[in-house]
Structures are given as structure tokens and as C-alpha cells.
Amino acid sequence: MINSLLCQQLDIKFPIFQGGMAWIANAGLASAVSNAGGLGIIAAMNYRAIQLAEEIKSLRRLTDKPFAVNIMLMSPYIEEIIQVVIEEKVPIVTTGGGNPTQYMKQLVENGVKVIPVVPSTALAKMVERSGAAAVIAEGGEAGGHVGELTTMCLVPLICDTVSIPVIAAGGIADGRGIAAAFMLGAEGVQLGTRFLTAHECEIHSNYKNRVLKAKDIDTIVTGKRLGHPIRSLKSPFTRDLFKKEYDSTISNEELEKLGEGALRLAVIEGSAEKGCFMAGQSAALIKKEQSVQEIIQEIFEEAEKCLRRANEWIK
Hints:
Number of helices: 13
Order of helices and strands: HEHEHEHEHEHEEHEHEHEEHHHH
Structural class: alpha/beta
Mean pLDDT: 96
Distance between the termini: 25 Å
Strand content: 5-15%
Helix content: 40-55%
């Protein structure tokens, strides 16, 4: 059985996080991951305080295992979200979409383990100095908001830079990816796209079917012109948005408005024309729907087999 320092620190059975995907990572999915031995994560996205508090209460009715809340740093309600996390005694927080250092002192002093998503060594060093318990090194293969560096390059660079545990993310959907992440120096992994096809994931069936049918060239990155690139599946919406980014007659404000609500339309309504179906390049590796328990069990059994075979390459 694969175990790491991260498992001991966070009191989890398997060193795997479920990504804090907006509109997707709710109490149902997060509790299933935690009950299966991983770290389930609720997405705070643009919730108000009362909404997040209710979601945390819902999760606690479904599991007594460790869990986390993902804080999107671009949220207009971040101050009240942090207050709820402290009041509800949430044990772990992951952060995304920026630099969390201005909020970390308050969280750490209140006993919250903070684990930021980092796309570079500079930010990794910064959050370590601010008291991060670990970092998530997320490569550009991931779905949703992405950086420039690939997981293969980013993970060892960050492992060489910080002394805290590193969780690898981006492009990982099976046991081979997990084994590779450990060989690069990671103590754990974070998966988002793989959990989109879990039975417990409540996204629209159109969304799941798009992931299951995805080929290796079926993702696209939009938003580079706006400074916050996003990887999603190719669709009428993303193709149109990508084209308009190169149209100088369209302002940045107009581009921003085009994307408003597109993820919700994909998750809730399954809108083929107007939805933004966020997913990573690993979508092409996913061919079936399973329970969260089956996913975690399968990928770690595969990872263990891969790691045990490592001696074959040493003569």
C-alpha cells in the first residue's frame, strides 16, 4: 500500500486530493472522496458566508473524515469566507487563483493547515515562508485555471525549492501518473478531471459524456489575453471565445462578459452551445464511470504495480 508523510500529517489513508472545482466540488463529492480515504475538498468559489457554512454542515453529516475547503482568491467575498473557515474549524484549506500570503497568517494562527496551488517556484518559496503546510504544484495540463509550466517540469523544480510536502497536479488520471509523480519527488497527487465521471459527481450527463468521449487533442486554453488562462474541452463556446481573443475590435471587458456563467451552464444545464466544460488533458485517459471508492482503489493498485516494476529498469 502506498503511504507518504502527507498521509500522516493530514490523517488520510491515500495521498490523494480531489480538486476544488467550482460548481462541482460539493459536499456530496467531497464526502465520498474523504470516506474513500482521500482528501475531499469543497469549492468555496464565490459563495457568501452562509452558503459555505451550509455546505460544510452538509459534508459533516456525510463524513467524519478530514476534508478541506478550496478558497478562490479572486472571490469578492474572501474575507467572510476565511471567517467561516475559522469559525467552522475547517482543518485544511487549499487556495487557487493567486497569491494567498496576505491571508495565511490569520488562517495558520487559527490552526488551519494551508496548502496553496502554486504554478512557479517563486510562489512556492513565498507561501512556505508564510507557513504553508504543503504546496500543490499544478502543471498546465490541468483543467480550469492553469499556468505555463508542465507538471513534468514543475513538480521536480518545486520539490528542489521547498522543504514542505509537494502534491503533484495536472495531467494525472491513473496509477501511471501517480507513480510518475512520486518518482518526481511528490508526496501526493491532486486529481480533478478523473472525478468528473464519478457516480457521486453531480454534473450534467452531457458534461460527463464529453469527458468520456474526449480525445487527446480535445482541450483548448482560452483567456491568455486576459491574464487568466483556462483549459476546457473544445466546444462551440470555447472555439468562439478563442477566436475572439485575437479580434482587436473586441475589448477585454467584452471578453470577460462572454465567459460569465459559462461553467454553470455546463455543470447545471449541460449546454452544448454556451457551456464551458472545464477539463484537463487527462480526459482522454478516462473511459468509464465508477464510484469514487472504485476510482481511488483502482488507481492506487495500478500505481503500486508500476512502482514495484521500477527495479526492472536497473541492471
